[in-house]
# Entry
Amino acid sequence: MTPSASAPRTPLRHLVLVLGDQLDPTAAALDGFDPTRDAIWMAEVAEESTHVWSSKPRTALFLAAMRHFRDAQRALGRTVRYVALDDTGNTGTLGGELARAIAELRPERLVMTEAGDWRVLQALEAAAEGARVTLEVRTDRHFLSTLDEFRAHAKGRKQLRLEYWYRELRRRHGILLDATGGPEGGEWNYDAENRGSFGKEGPRGHRAPVAFPPDAVTREVLALVEARFAGHPGDLAAFDWPVTPDEARRALDDFIAHRLPRFGEFQDAMWHDEPWLYHSRLAAAMNLKLLDPRDVVRETERAYRDGRVPLAAAEGFIRQVLGWREYVRGIYWLYMPRYAQANALGAREPLPRFYWDGDVELACLRDAIGQTLRLGYAHHIQRLMVTGLYALLLGVEPRQVHEWYLAVYVDAVEWVELPNTVGMSQYADGGIMASKPYAATGKYIQRMSDHCARCRFDPSKSTGDDACPFTTLYWDFLMRHEETLAGNQRMALQVRNLGRLSPADRAAITARAAEVRSAGGAPPRALTLL
# Structure
């Protein structure tokens, strides 16, 4: 381990644990920090990139942000016991490194902010218990609600829907309220105004997010990741994510000035080779705690009050931050660890290999997965209604889908990724989060993008060599789960539509779906006659 130049006097009072997604200089764990008696502990360990096959961009972002945080804390005169991946004696596991630090430093107490990953918390608690050292876990003030507040909200409710939690938080924090205390504009939710597509002309007048060229610290990390994780997916050539609080704030200002005004209308739209469109690219900065969500919400509301963005855009974005982010965190900690094993639909198929290399004929999947591997990013509709939808319809085991999302996206921390994948995308929790499965044919993708115009598959067809696999698998999904879905009021119309399929239609769809599965989850490629 490499301590800073000015080590605290012994005995060490508090060893403050700072994880890779806790890079908040105002975190509760640092309250009352005494530079003469306390030290910060941080560790880079291979386990965090190998328990799922973490992509190069994701690993690089965490390590670069961690090292910048380390340097900023040392500049304040604080001792940081920092374990690097290439340090001699690195155990490769978080629990192993903490046990080693406890044995060397012999702190009176360990202090940390609430973790964002159940597995990580268990490892740290086990290391502390094994060393017979008290581990004090402090409330994470980064969030606008506490876990106890969410538990109180959940108590006695049959259903935990986002909308009610979101409204409660809006009232509690006074966000987008009018003079009477009601919702600004008379409505709590303007989602109906935020479903626009680009039509045939495509997106216009948008500009790429501000870029953050890697500095010396980040370049060192990129070289390390390329060498240490050469066999992992992803590409670092375009790496330009914010890795400090100052950079994260610049990213926020850039989004509000240049993309937020049209974010609402086009937040669900897709277009080939356009990864950013009007999206914020702020989730990673918030999830690593480089950016305070209060600032995000405050500046978004200010932009609306100043007349710079329409209400639907401001409300739609605030709902993602103040509503959805807080909600999924509550769901995660309320139901873990059993939530990670949820599989209400009994899905058992393996995740297709093309999720790891992008080698697939379908234009929508090829674009979304290729972009994901190149940048570590895809926006929420690409995740929910392209990669997630395909896995749902195919019947992929939810845990495999979860592990892929956790591995490939730079903003993936388990508290936010797992509920979004298992609950929202795969409906594996049986309706705890979503009131119905997000099942759709290829016509949804045709309506919201230009992908189908660039693809040999026809979204209107469910059988035949040119049938869109989304459409084939959609009907197959409804047939396989007809009995279960018949009792869901929101799925009633879709299930009733099965009635227009003849026995021959059903047999043909089932046969075509079987062909897709036998081809490794991808449609058989068209034969070229020579």
Summary: The CA atoms of residues 424 and 434 lie 6 Å apart. Residues 1-6 have pLDDT under 50 and may be disordered. The two ends are 63 Å apart (CA to CA).
